[in-house]
Amino acid sequence: MTRRNTYKYLIVLLVFFSCSKNQIVLQPAINIGNVAFVSDTTMKKMEGIYALNSGTTDYGTQWVCKASKYRVSFFSNQAGIFMILKYGIDPADSSLKFSGFWRFSEIATQGLVSFTVPKAEAIAFLKTGDISTLTLDGTIVSGEGTASPISFKFSRAFSQYVLTTPFEIYSHHGVQTTSNPPFAQNSLLGVLNDEDYGVDGLEFDIQMTRDSVPICMHDGNIDIRLTQKSPISGDYNQYGFNFLEDYIRLVDGQKIPSLAEVCADFIDSTTMTYLWLDIKGDVGVFEALLPVVQNAYNHAEAVGRKVVMYVDMPSTTVISQYQAYPPYRASGLPSMCELTYQDVIDNGCTRWGPRYSRGLLLDEVAQAHAAGIRVISWTLNDKTLIRNYIQNGQFDGFISDYPAYVVYDWYTLK
Amino acid sequence: MHIRNLIIVFSTSLIAGRSLAQNDAGQYTKYRHFAVYAGVGPSYFFNNLTIAKKYVNSFQYAFSARFMWEPKGSFVSLGFETGYYRLYSTDLPQPVNAKVVNTSIPLQFVVSMKFSPKIYADWSMGQSIQYNKVTAPDNQNNFNNHITSLADFSATIGYRFIQKERISYAAEFKGYYSSAYANGTIALLFVVGFRL
């Protein structure tokens, strides 16, 4: 009896000490072999709704296909499952090959998946962009390692409403999925990979260093929730950027990025349009931000990229700082406010970011639209709520920790 | 008759007076419910750093002090514990060239259990103040930071090897964990106790 009690106590202690922070789960390595390059503009023509043609129904029966700069992704109607696939022409048989991984949005279970489009169909698609008869035949491997055949067939194009209604889907803090994400939030690898997860915008958080370098970090102080354990603690604004570069690493080992680095990668290495900068309120932040954001816009213009990068004011403190530095507003750079609609008007913002818990706000959203102001609700994570807000609201976009839900529900609208 | 009554009263008074005098003189000792303990000794930090791990000096020292309420006849006592744990130090090389010292001051409630007159165990829970001192003379990165860590605890096993009327001496093996930065350390303390 005593021994049994001892075991009970040990189990309780084990459970107690097992509680840990959300761990990074890397994407599986993808080996597509030797394939010839196909441009993203060509692959964009693949976008649409696909239905399960044959094979296992374990991963859903209908899919939204989206193409990013370097990947093609599918978003399922089941459990937020998504696939991210490399692609290319197999020189051996001229087929169009896809190879990548699938995973759930809310749990880290994942596995490999591959498809092939035979030569004749592949050539027809690449030459004409016709996907009306496109069929992808392949194999999907479950989390337990069991391989099953699976086949997708093009079902329909996105509806005219979807194609003509600009809708912005943001990843919250730049995470791909909150549950065991593959990359740290507010990171450069997030910038480079988030687009594959279906978003066309990033919400990044802005803190300042002691030497007035805007950096991307949510918390104001160094902690082991977002960074690897280091001998350094305290507030980020107590340290110079070089010091932080040397001795602070994000949970997946990346360096803390400066805003300038994030903007450069956002413009040069993605096709995303929107960059939401959530300002955390350091003194002098707008003075430091102005040249960085202006330089980023200049760079985007120079390379022919159309982007919208805007500062967000989430509190009265940040609004006060914005008002205390009139050159930022005078610069004409876009801005957003999360507080009331009146605050949006008073500060000349072009965007409004009401919290989702305030409801659909139909009248105020209509009023904002009439004034040319776009309204983005945050942070929607519950799949039922997301569907409700898409079907019954008039918002211009959402922030979500699970963008796969938003992508599926938005792009399947009729 | 009158004389006999006087003799009885006188004799009773003598007996009673003697018995009271015996209590005051030796067998009765006033029980002291409160005691303070203070200890010092070497400590060892469990080096779980990811950054600059190889520069960590894990061998440090710790002070501990507690104020206890020890009810008469009870094996369990309650109190308040504080101390000073020098957790670890690091000497970061160039280009930063900084010395970093991390310390902790716990402010915790403690429960103590006596298993025998000599052996006892303590369990304390509460908050700590975590101090982080960075000294980097060549690039002006000198900082003193502190945060409060709310869910911390320590566990102690002690052996009391000398127990006098008001003073005791003991050796304690203490493990301490602070949740905010996941800092864990163990210490071997030499402890002096004094009953108030």
Describe the structure.
- The complex is a heterodimer of chains A (414) and B (196).
- Chain A has 14 helices and 19 strands.
- By secondary structure, chain A is of the alpha/beta class.
- Chain A has an eight-stranded antiparallel beta barrel with strand order 1-2-3-4-5-6-7-8. Chain A has an eight-stranded parallel beta barrel with strand order 9-10-14-15-16-17-18-19, surrounded by five helices. In chain A, strands 12-13 form a two-stranded antiparallel ribbon.
- In chain A, helix 7 packs parallel to helix 8 (285-302) and helix 13 (383-392) packs parallel to helix 14 (403-411).
- Chain A starts with a helix and ends with a helix.
- The relative contact order of chain A is 0.11.
- An eight-stranded antiparallel beta barrel of chain B has the order 1-3-4-5-6-7-8-9.
- Residues 16-26 of chain B have low confidence and may be disordered.
- Chains A and B meet through strand 13 and helix 6 of A and strand 6 and strand 7 of B.
Considering the chains and any ligands shown, give keywords for the structure.
heterodimer; A: 414 residues; alpha/beta; Lipocalin; TIM Barrel; 8-stranded antiparallel barrel; 8-stranded parallel beta barrel; 14 helices; B: 196 residues; mainly beta; 13% helix; elongated
